[in-house]
Amino acid sequence: MQMKIGFYQFNPKFGKIEENVKKVESALYRGTARRAPTADLIVLPECFNTGYLFLDKEEVARFAEEIPGGYTTQKLIKIAKSKKMFIVAGLAEKHGKKFYNSAVIVGPGGYIDTYRKIHLFNEEKLLFSPGNKPFKVYDIKKAKIGIMVCFDWYFPESARTLALRGAQIICQPANLVLPHCPNAMITRSLENRVFSITANRIGQDVRGEKRLTYIGKSQILSPLGEKIVSASEEEVLKICEIDPSQADNKKILRHNDLFKDRRPKFYQ
Predict the structure, then answer these.
(1) Is 37 in contact with 229 (CB distance < 8 Å)?
(2) What's the structural domain count of the chain?
(3) Of 23, 94, 142, 150, which is the active-site residue?
(4) How high does pLDDT run on average in the chain?
(5) Is the pLDDT of residue 228 over 60?
(6) pLDDT of residue 237
(7) What is the pLDDT of residues 152-173, one digit of tens each?
(8) Could you tell me what percentage of the chain is helix, strand and coil, using 3-state DSSP and rounding each to the nearest 5?
(9) Which terminus has fewer CB within 10 Å in the chain: N or C?
């Protein structure tokens, strides 16, 4: 079954939650009637609603939101219902007294679930609690999708776990500053025979003496590691059509099957 998948790459303004959410809303509605779906699945960057470079935990507390009751998730739910699409988006989550670097998944039926980033990057360890929920796969009718966030790419177990659990598409909200991920995700897609969507941001966060520059280069990859669509460092919404069932074929050569040939007893 064919489906349309995409990413929106842009430059969020730090702390301007309503403005950033409105920018996403405008991009997803641009040039279409509100009833016409632009895609079945859209992935947004990590911390898309707030920006990424928090100076301290107190600042995280000020901008983090509860899920699903917070402003951002509720707005995403309205967009998903109106556009009849699924959205995966990264945001800072407040849960009790803890804060997580999370990604929410919503769809035409409303809120579905939250993934909390398991592998925290650098100073994130000073700001967020590490994710405490396992990698999970979601059946969104046309495909089975999994979620990982940014630095999770550095750990091949992330994508492999999702693939073993049946993911056909891996959704990766990201705020990439290191140059390696776009190439590494080619391997992640190839070694697991899955589609992947990396939604990165562009621009800079400049907060006092701290500065981060984001590399852009969002992309959608095939199960063979081929770039279906990609971006450079511009603001862009890109959508392509795929057949998710291609990710079910784990055959490599005549006598080799990616998962059947695994020998886990030797991997300890």
Answers:
(1) no
(2) 1
(3) 150
(4) 96
(5) yes
(6) 95
(7) 999 999 999 999 999 999 999 9
(8) 25, 30, 45
(9) C
| pLDDT tens sequence across 19-46 | 999 999 999 987 454 555 589 999 999 9
Token pair of 124, please?
């994130």
> pLDDT at position 77, please?
98
Q: Which of 23, 83, 94, 117 is catalytic?
A: 117
H runs (alpha helix) in 40-86: 57-63, 71-83
Catalytic (active site) residue 46: yes
Contact (Cβ atoms closer than 8 angstroms) between residue 139 and residue 131: no
Q: Is 150 a catalytic residue?
A: yes
What single string gives the DSSP state of each residue in 122-150? TTHHHHSPPP-S---EEE-SS-EEEE--G
Q: Chain centroid to CA 124: how far? A: 17
DSSP one-letter code for 13: P
Closest CA to 145 of 179, 100, 106: 106
Residue 120: closest CA among 170, 72, 154, 171: 154
Residue 94: count other Cβ atoms within 10 Å of its Cβ: 18
What pLDDT is attached to residue 59?
97
Alpha helix positions (H), the chain: 17-29, 57-63, 71-83, 124-127, 156-164, 181-192
What value, to the nearest 5°, has the Cα angle with vertex 174 and ends 172 and 177?
140
pLDDT per residue as tens digits for the range 142-153: 999 999 999 999
pLDDT at 1: 87
Q: Is the dihedral of CA 54, 238, 113, 111 positive or negative?
A: positive
Q: Which candidate in 23, 46, 65, 75 is catalytic?
A: 46
Write the CATH number for 41.
3.60.110.10
The average pLDDT across 180-208 equals 97
Catalytic (active site) residue 117: yes
